[in-house]
């Protein structure tokens, strides 16, 4: 449930940016395009992009597949390393918040490229090494999140590696970053959920460290001096011969 909530938060934050990117830079007025969501999770991004494309999804988790099917989404159980489709089956093949969890992200991208006619997209990957938490009393938060993500098996610096990964797969690529600075009102609205995420991720921190950081966050929020930026990068890839 906690993972589902975080995935939904991410999809809601980035919904407008996803739609703009895909409409302006990929579809460009074309209709009837097909898309494959690799590592679709509970289908939140599929629901957003289903308004633009005919979207199919795959995920390795049986519970996620069932959750998608309960919403009448077209999803099957499959690995990103072995997609059950023929070459050039979809106009667009995309993922979001997937590559950071994979041991072999290049292998997954190669497979995504195989089943795509033209477009291979990573809609979002974080880079916690570029995270900003201000004031200075919050400076220790980023390193704790990096350490916690590594402990969970993720690559907290995946965002900066997207260009390299796509180029190595022979794809032309445009890399950018989503808008990601919250105003004070949004920071207040997200306070409880954001701290649930922080505490579930920074698992190597002591109780005293987390207490002091949370107190510093609350004080900065009350004083309207809190600034938090966690960059989410995207990569829009295209086959060179497409």
How would you describe this protein?
- The protein is of the alpha/beta class.
- The protein has a domain at 2-132 and 155-181 and 230-239: Rossmann fold.
- It has helices spanning 2-27, 44-49, 62-70, 105-115, 141-151, 162-168, 184-189, 191-201, 207-223, and strands at 34-38, 54-59, 74-77, 90-95, 116-126, 132-134, 171-177, 227-229, 232-239.
- The strands form two sheets. The chain has a seven-stranded mixed beta sheet, sandwiched between helices. Strands 6-8 form a two-stranded antiparallel ribbon.
- Helix 3 links the parallel strand 2 and strand 3.
- The longest helix is centred in the first third of the chain and has 26 residues, at 2-27.
- It is elongated and about 55 Å long.
- It starts with a helix and ends with a strand.
- 37% of the residues are buried.
- The model has no long low-confidence stretch (mean pLDDT 94).
Give the tags.
43% helix, 7-stranded mixed β-sheet, elongated, Rossmann fold, single chain, two-stranded antiparallel sheet, alpha/beta
Walk across the major sheet and give the strand order. 3-2-1-4-5-9-7
Terminus-to-terminus distance: 40 Å
**CATH homologous superfamily heading of the domain at 2-132 and 155-181 and 230-239:** Vaccinia Virus protein VP39
Q: Hey, roughly how much beta strand do the residues contain?
A: 15-25%
**What's the number of helices?**
9
Pattern of helices and strands: HEHEHEEHEEHHEHHHEE
The CATH architecture term of the domain at 2-132 and 155-181 and 230-239 is 3-Layer(aba) Sandwich
Q: What global shape is seen?
A: elongated
Question: What is the share of helical residues?
Answer: 40-55%
The CATH class name of the domain at 2-132 and 155-181 and 230-239 reads: Alpha Beta
What CATH calls the topology of the domain at 2-132 and 155-181 and 230-239 is: Rossmann fold
What's the pLDDT, averaged over the residues? 94
Q: Biggest sheet, in brief?
A: 7 strands, mixed
Class computed from helices, strands and strand pairing: alpha/beta
